[in-house]
Amino acid sequence: MFDLKTLIRPNILKLEPYRCARDDFKEGILLDANENTIGPAVADLSPEEDELLLNRYPDPHQVELKQQIVDFRNSEALSELKNFETDKLTPDNLCLGVGSDESIDLLLRCVCVPGKDKVLLCPPTYGMYSICATVNEVEIVKVPLTTPDFQVDNTKVLEAVTADPNIKVLYITSPGNPTGKLVAIETILDLVEKCKANWNGVIVVDEAYIDFAALDQNGKSKSLSVLVNQYPNLVVLQTLSKSFGLAGIRLGVTYANTTLIRYLNAMRYPYNISSLTANVAIRASNKEGLSTMKEYCSRIIEQRASVLEKLQAFKGVGKNLGGLDANFILVEFLDKEGKPSNDVAKKVYQILAVDNGVVVRFRGSELNCTGGLRISIGTPEENKTLLEKLDKVLQQVNGFN
Ligand SMILES: Cc1ncc(COP(=O)(O)O)c(C=O)c1O
Question: Which of 172, 177, 328, 377 to mutate to test the pocket of ligand 1 (most atoms within 8 A of CB)?
Fold first, then answer.
């Protein structure tokens, strides 16, 4: 049933990737791209910045960076990967974007015809999917995550996609935002298998927070990125904004089968990844960078446990609504009767920010998140301040603690 050639929009199938003279010739006197040959008009570039030749367009292919990324993810291949040698990732499985926000949008535009096609979302979920869908005039169909465990409801999703062939993309966030909960690998793969047989659409698993999730019993990451050659209807998104601590460079990664990736690369702006971004990303994804990333993740995970434990000792703070698979928690705020309350959560949010300079995120209006504040895990000092201030704010709001 799944058939990429009929899924991709006809205008995209016809698209010829932008080509430049530098695809053929990289060296010599380069007078092919209307660059400023004198140099960058910045007097005080550092020697490192100077070396990046910022007067020149960046490399549109970024093979070195892609190779490092796939080497890393291949090194963590899941036992679900049946044939490592034939199915392991190569740079041709990757399309790089300006953050995964660009990847979300690109994929949607690749397969959804405006005014006709639809996307399926599983709320509560990340807000950019619906923004991109709305901007592109793509209708949104919703199948909520199950409660209270925030998993994908495979039966209902299958019902929805088989009932409506105009649904072309399903976005799953795992670990979820704002849920902080990993969707079980078995659940996603079961859905991927069943969808492949019954639906002409792609399942996009947004793994922005995957490096904060617990490793499996073999010490491997639970990322599904290594499975995209095995499952042509599976697409995985990742970002350097979270575990790598590089939200400022804007780098997102799409993993998919090589055919789909070819179309995504043909669609994107050829120079979307700046030389500055690529340079930092290459340093972040080499051996040293990866070990720093892992160390930071462990520190954040340690802090996550400690913040949650302390928070839960506060009267007026209810349960952790979500999971412990990301760099934030979603905790419930209660009224005097002990019921989750958006009024209380909003007041706490306001007073924390306005009078105490600590900004968290109110998520109580999201489906099944009543009374919820999403709190990113800070540094130990930041967390200490958060806890002190919150203690005070809860007394003010509810007379608690
Ligand atoms: C689930 C999810 N996907 C994607 C993003 C966006 O990431 P990026 O910074 O790479 O655009 C976020 C950011 O918060 C997110 O929570």
Answer: 177
